[in-house]
Amino acid sequence: MSLRNNMNQVTENKSNRNNRNKISEQLSRNPLYSRSTSHLSLGADFSLSKAFLPVIPPEAEKPLEPYQQCRLFLSHIGWLNPDTFKDGSISMLDKGPALYRDIRLLDKKYSRECIKVALLYVGSGQEDEQSILHNTNGSNEYDEFVTSLGWEIDLATHPGYLGGLERNSTNGTTSIYYCNSTLEIIFHDVTRMPTDPTDLKQLRKVL
């Protein structure tokens, strides 16, 4: 009985080796096969079989008319029918210099409402504009209030709305900024802006 079991095991091992050799031979003919890749990992990867080879789509057809893609888009959203033109849902634009100018400036417009807010710290006993604009810092309560309005940004690298603040440190290096999906607010904190001792009116702080 033991001899028969040993013979069966030898036969089974030989059959397994033959199967592995067949798999290796098939994989070696595959253009996606790499000699540096493990045979065992490739043997378990059915994506390399012929039925699962990637199919490259044909090159997209070039539109026959300049506005073919536009017509296709309008058709998909249900606007390309006579009724939409009758009820005034779609109106034709006047093709002229003004239209081309507006299109060029379209990308420069902000997608959200933008607001700039000036923050002034008025110290004890300060009543005139000059002394207020010369403040280089505020009280602890003022600083806590300012930081609660948004988050601090670096003016040199901030990609959002600046409200006229310069990136070259002319108006300081940081500011407070807040935004959501529909709104951007930049806070011009006078105490964060550099003070010019030769300018009594501090015109750089008045934006």
UniProtKB/TrEMBL annotation:
Q: Which GO terms describe its biological process?
A: regulation of small GTPase mediated signal transduction
Query: Could you tell me where the Polar residues compositional bias lies?
Result: 1-11
A molecular-function term among this protein's GO annotations: GTPase activator activity
Tell me which residues make up the Rap-GAP domain.
103-207
Region span, Disordered: 1-29
**Protein origin, superkingdom:** Eukaryota
InterPro entries in the record:
Rap/Ran-GAP_sf, Rap/Ran_GAP_dom, Tuberin/Ral-act_asu
Q: Which PANTHER family match?
A: RHO GTPASE-ACTIVATING PROTEIN CG5521-RELATED, TUBERIN
Protein name, entry field: Rap-GAP domain-containing protein
Taxonomically, what lineage is the organism? Eukaryota, Fungi, Fungi incertae sedis, Mucoromycota, Glomeromycotina
